Amino acid sequence: MKKRPILFVLIPLCFLIIIWESFLPLVFVRNHYSKHYANGSGYQILIKSDGELRDKTIKYKGEIIRCDNGNLRHITEGDVLVYFSKSDSVYNIKYGDIISTNAPLKPIENFTKNSSFDYKRYMKRKKIYDNVFLLYYPWQRIDSNKCNFLITKSRELNKLCQNKILNSNLPRQESALAIGMLLGEKEYIDEDTQENFREAGLTHILVVSGMNIAIILIVLESFLKLFFFGRERLIVVRKLILVAMAFALCFVVSLTPSALRVAIMMLAFLFSKHSNRGSDSINVFFVTVLVFLIFDPMVLFDWSFQFSFLAVFGIILFARWRHRLFNEKRLNYFLRQGVSAAGMTLSAQVFLFPLLLWRFRVIYPYMLLFNIIIVPFISIVLITIILFLLLSDIAFVGTIVETLMHWELYLLMKLVGVTDSLPYAAIEI
Prior knowledge:
Strands 1, 2, 3, 4, 5, 6, 7, 8 and 9 form a 9-stranded mixed sheet that branches. This protein has helices at residues 7-23, 119-125, 149-166, 172-183, 191-199, 210-226, 235-252, 257-273, 281-295, 303-325, 333-360, 367-391, 397-417, and strands at residues 42-47, 52-53, 57-69, 72-75, 79-85, 98-101, 105-107, 128-133, 139-143, 362-363, 427-428. By secondary structure, the protein is α+β, with helices and mostly antiparallel strands.
């Protein structure tokens, strides 16, 4: 504690957030729509996400930006969940659109009385309190392209990359897997494939997790070290390149919070390491956590936040203890990288295991084994997907990369598919 005084601030802050969330109502934003909305009055919703296809509807996240109460118009804030009929997909509703409606707001409730998951409380932590069902109520789109310019362009690039993979010669499930791993879109992945990854404890691979971004950056750093950037005097240049690549990857994956956390943490590590006071990786980690909690205290309860930071904490601890665990001098470069990748994966999974057990009440006995075997291989797959996006338009070279990607994804699906034949792949508790 004396070496890391930041804990004297971070730990009480975490306890304060937990107490506040448990016993006191959440704080409304200043101009929350609930202060001005009246049942039956009209309002405008800014669409803030892409559509999520469900059984009978398409779900979006939106923000109520204006309430019209009689002759009074109020500029408001506050997020809601918006549900359209599947038939409305022909209108191509997208991020940045503004729609107008007078559909009643329906408070978010739990799924069923028998469900142990408190969905209502979970959404309150995200400051989302109401649903808007537009299946049987009139609405109209009144404007478009009104969201953040950078996020809009990031989503356009993400969609362009998705289309490039979908239009390749890869089988449908392989292209779906590639899109999920690098671009974070699970819509195209069938349920059987998702179940296989779930039983192997590799669900984090199918989304743009902080671990995926970290894997790519670790591989890129290894490549840079092989060339001129491995020299002592070029360490700063190498780190700057990695930070730039981290933010570039964030842009490609639509600036997701989990990817931005990795990029911001890398930036913090870079500045601390080359400051006059030196660096302590664990201290930098705690400072980064504190910054995120100051900007959004309720992120403490976000699953993505919990998973990504526990995984990173495990990787940091392994990096500090690596030299004590095995003698690197006895290993050649490639074997050293393989052992390090397996060790980091194992360390991250050990820290994630209690949270997975508590959240999902399921034990996947083969999780650690599959992660140690497959995650190092996934680093190769992710780099190949990036190379495909960069080189697919070049004749012959693009064909070679596409063929490599096909066999890598085919082998990955076969390896993960082994869980079907294993006994006790999932044990509910």
